Amino acid sequence: MVTVRKADPALMDKGTQRPRELSPAAREREKQQKQFKRLIGQLTGPEQVFEVRLDSTEKPITIRQRLLRVAADEKVEIAVRKHGDGFLVGLLTPDRRTNRGRRAGGAADTTTKG
């Protein structure tokens, strides 16, 4: 059977658990995110390009996605290109924009059936 009793309202208002400490891996990710945020903040024009080198423990796709996520949070469009054992990161310009997945010649097919 369930027992119901009156309790102190302060128990509902304040958290009963203390905030958990971040794990070493989570601290490292947070540090890396701040580093990427600083890097993206320094991109003021197309002439600034940064090289991001990876160590053997990092997965390239993960780092690339983290860079793009931080840039999206900062509302900055960046281009990320493979270079050696890492990436080059710079502001996105029309020359740096990729056309992967798009038809050559621009917009969608304009022919209509009548």
Structural summary, described in words:
This protein is α+β, with helices and mostly antiparallel strands. The chain has a domain at 30-91. The chain is built from three helices and three strands. Strands 1-3-2 form a three-stranded antiparallel beta sheet, covered by helices on one side. It is elongated. The mean pLDDT is 85.
* Topology as a string of helices (H) and strands (E): HHEHEE
User: Largest sheet, order of strands side by side?
Assistant: 1-3-2
| Shape by Cα distribution | elongated
Report the β-strand fraction as a percent range: 5-15%
Mean pLDDT: 85
The percentage helix is: 25-40%
The rounded distance between the terminal residues' Cα atoms is 74 Å
The largest pleated sheet is described as: 3 strands, antiparallel
Low-confidence stretches: none
Alpha-carbon Rg, integer: 24 Å
Count of β-strands = 3
> In terms of structural class, how would the helical and strand content be classed?
alpha+beta
Q: Total number of helical segments?
A: 3
Search tags:
single chain; alpha+beta; three-stranded antiparallel beta sheet
Give the arrangement of secondary structure elements.
Blueprint: H1 10-13, H2 24-41, E1 49-53, H3 60-73, E2 78-83, E3 86-91
Antiparallel strand pairs: 1-3, 2-3
Helix pairs in contact: 2-3
Question: Summary?
Answer:
The protein is of the alpha+beta class. It is built from three helices and three strands, in the order H-H-E-H-E-E.
